[in-house]
């Protein structure tokens, strides 16, 4: 058996460790032993934010916590709508031969089944299509039709994983794990078994946080104190540089949004004001954050839709390095342990993304970086 | 009579005041009264540097010193080879009806005549063409054929003005003024009647400098202490962003220089190191500085060759505002006193340049700026 995990580990904390423990326990109770493979965002995350610690460090932590192989989800998978993020991540895991997918959720699979069946109906599809035309955001539509609370990333991501597996038509077992502690985007330090990653990111100087992440992770967070605002000048510059005409070609900039972005950019004083000014009821902040990253990285529709057949390995359990060869021999996907001139062509966009990230965050060039054997 | 001056006034100093005084004296001795019209670089200069004080402030100073009308030379004229800089500047002045051109030089017109005649010969043209092919820089060729000392911007610029007038075939009188004091690019504070602009820029904290520029200019310089290095992150970013493929389209990036720029950018630690790394015997530092500005402003060959038929007025002597109407009525060129939505299309590239300049130099938006009536 091979259990897959879709992750961001931003930062890696006790809740993530708990998920890996559950995967191990599942294997144990089934008396089946195998591998835990994780696909993880590297520089930028699904919500359009900057990863607070670099990918190699986060991957190393995950292997220390019991995962076997950590793969870097390319930019075009990581900075994406939850459905797209899930689809691209799970596609990689499937190509790596997973038989199970484990994920945190507060809901039952039967709940997902119910919604999925309703969503597949022709009449519902038509209703969604018509509502989208009126300018209502997708989360609001989900609330309206399925009575799903708005801004509930726990549900949204888990349901996206469910759909990706369902749509793949592969025989993959879902292992939903009841989430404990805070919801994904909660933000207050409480005396809880598990704090959310958001709480940890926003409060990493707090004493309580120390009990939820490793010392290693805490040190890495303290060293790497950049925020989206550090990239503000580059984003502001590239909006001016592209101009309204070329902003149109940036992925997800549609329906006249290019004018709005250009004009708000003239007025805004910092990154956060820019996001606030551009976002509306129709364009959620998360979407705008992602679009600003697409502008920063000059990501067009062509970069997003390229299929993912090559993936970099960030870390591996040193006793499980054979998995890499096994996966590569199957030829569904190629895993690369090091960037070289010979394979760089498969990672053109990610190398650019990495070098742009490096301007503000003086980390090692990924070209010189190697997988972590833990 | 209408006397033209091509200038950068970076910053405006006593040497510039002296040139304007000479123009006035010339008018007086000829018993002909008229106007002094200046065309001046605005944000970036001919040597590929950042103007140390904004255009409106420098223009205001020049009118206070006796000039009548100051026009902004568009980016495509200001950041250019000396011949191109001179040609575009003088073309604007000719369209404004100048009858005379005054300029500083250490050489006689007869010397320019001699070199010009030699340069016009078919055999010399062929020799220059062949030498360029061998990879020798243009200044070295000028030295080889005409025995002109290398890195002599005094000669180079004056001779470029001479050629521009000559090639225009207009009947314009040249008024060469013997330069006093330091050469253009000298850099030491000496007890001289006139210091070079370079000396003043590099030593504006020095006491002696105070006697060479107005207090107003000195204050503006102190407030505006940005250097090319402040734009380094944006330049570094855009080199990564463009990639080797798109760097090729940037003006003046030719013959495989795109690879050199891309690769040096990966290694360089700051702007000055980047210039040093890219420049060679063939590619002078000045040329590389200009190219880096073209990268910063995404300037392609198409931006450079667009004809200049619209120019912004930066400052005017309040008793001479009628000149603007007179020039506009002649319809050779249109002078604009304010940027508005209606005329912005004529200044697209310069508005972009201005906004990029503004990212690092928190000056007022030129869109909101108005000419200075002095």
What does this protein look like?
The structure is a homodimer of 374-residue chains. The first copy, chain A, is an alpha/beta fold. The first copy, chain A, has three domains: 2-107 and 155-226 and 307-373, Rossmann fold (3-Layer(aba) Sandwich), CATH 3.40.50.620; 109-153, no CATH class; 228-303, no CATH class. Chain A is 49% helix and 11% strand. Chain A has 17 helices and eight strands. The first copy, chain A, has helices at 14-29, 55-64, 75-78, 82-95, 109-120, 122-133, 138-146, 153-168, 197-202, 215-223, 232-247, 257-267, 271-278, 285-296, 301-305, 322-330, 348-360; strands spanning 2-7, 35-41, 69-73, 100-105, 173-178, 310-316, 334-336, 372-373. In chain A, strands 1, 2, 3, 4, 5, 6, 7 and 8 form an eight-stranded mixed beta sheet that branches. In chain A, helix 1 (14-29) links the parallel strand 1 and strand 2 (35-41). Chain A starts with a strand and ends with a strand.
Query: CATH topology of the largest domain in chain A, which one?
Result: Rossmann fold
Shape verdict of chain A: globular
Number of domains of chain A: 3
Per CATH, the superfamily of the largest domain in chain A is HUPs
Percent of sequence in beta strands of chain A: 5-15%
**CATH class term of the largest domain in chain A:** Alpha Beta
Secondary-structure-based class of chain A equals alpha/beta
- CATH-scheme architecture of the largest domain in chain A: 3-Layer(aba) Sandwich
The chain pair forming the largest interface, with residue counts per chain, is: A-B, 16 and 16 residues
Secondary structure: number of strands of chain A:
8
What is the string of SSEs of chain A from the N terminus onward?
Answer: EHEHEHHEHHHHEHHHHHHHEHEHE
What kind of assembly state do the chains in view correspond to? homodimer
Q: Low-confidence parts of chain A lasting 5 or more residues at pLDDT below 50?
A: none
The overall pLDDT average of chain A reads 91
